[in-house]
Amino acid sequence: MRLTFLFLLLISVSSMAQRTKTVKIILDTDFGNDCDDAAALAILHQLAYNGEAEILATVYPMNDDLGAAAIDAENTYYGKPNIPVGTYKGTYEYKGKHNDFYNSKLAALPNDLQSGKNAPDAVALYRKILSTQPDRSVTIVVVGPQRLLADLLQSKGDSLSPLDGTALVKKKVVQLVSMGTEYPKGNEWNIRICPDAAQYVEEHWPTPVVYSGFEIGKAIMTGERLITETPENSPVRLAFETNPQVDAKKNRHSWDQTAVLYAVRGVRDYWTLGTGFPQIAEDGKNSWVVSKGNRHYLIAKKSTAEMKKILEDMMVAPPK
Ligand SMILES: [Ca+2]
Ligand SMILES: [Ca+2]
């Protein structure tokens, strides 16, 4: 009797392990200012090849016309030229310079968008995609400033959905993963250049939020294998070759890749989760308050060498 029970238990555990749930992702990325965005999108494509992720859309929060074309070029390189790309059409003045370290180079690779002028408004695209998805099914990963998310929450019901933005997010989104803040305190770029949006999102976002803090990606240097293991037209390689912030070995911190990896795979044995919430000041500085709730931060568990291998294997993997 006991043996039968054990046998059944083993069968059910092994079928649970085999069952892979495809995570529906919208990636919100400030492509161009740092090369980790290009690497994060590459990783997301590899996770999509595995069946671990489905890329519903990619959106660009900056007010220039290069980013959307560069994102479309990388999606095209990975064989997915029709993934929708939305771009910011507003006039917010970010509190930090957004550099074009590689967007013009990537925008020159094959892509049919060519310019943000040909891309839909990103908030409208968010509303359109969310309105067509099953309830509580979409994970949003933001690896840039949170302008679009704050605008989405404050959007009104329209022909795409009668729900206002906050109600639409509450109905359709299961989780927000944010590369932002620093634990236990800091002055992280994505928050600092658009602090009012980050404050609004932290206070009003109606689902659980997991922050992959500055310290998580900072510890993991990746990129050096791109030079020897990928072709010259790889958009990820181009981004790392062009970005002046890489180190002598062409490595850069893995801020955005870690957020994407968590969004798709969860904690695994990579991380554990702390619970609390970030207090975000008007100037974007943050400190974390440890308490109960539905805001979390990643805590590193696996060694940085092991994390580097996991991330870099996917950064250099070819298109399928
Ligand atoms: Ca396209
Ligand atoms: Ca970024």
UniProtKB/TrEMBL annotation:
Tell me which PANTHER family the record gives.
INOSINE_URIDINE-PREFERRING NUCLEOSIDE HYDROLASE DOMAIN-CONTAINING PROTEIN, PTHR43264
Which Pfam families does the protein's record reference? IU_nuc_hydro
Keywords of the record, alphabetical order, are: Hydrolase, Signal
Signal peptide (residue range): 1-17
Extract the coiled-coil ranges from the record: none
What's one GO MF term for it? hydrolase activity, hydrolyzing N-glycosyl compounds
SUPFAM superfamilies linked to this entry: Nucleoside hydrolase
Q: Which part of the chain is the Inosine/uridine-preferring nucleoside hydrolase domain?
A: 25-265
Looking at the record's lineage, which domain of life comes first?
Answer: Bacteria
Under which name does UniProt file this protein?
Inosine-uridine preferring nucleoside hydrolase
CDD domains with a match to the protein in the record? nuc_hydro_2
Q: What is the organism field in this record?
A: Chryseolinea serpens
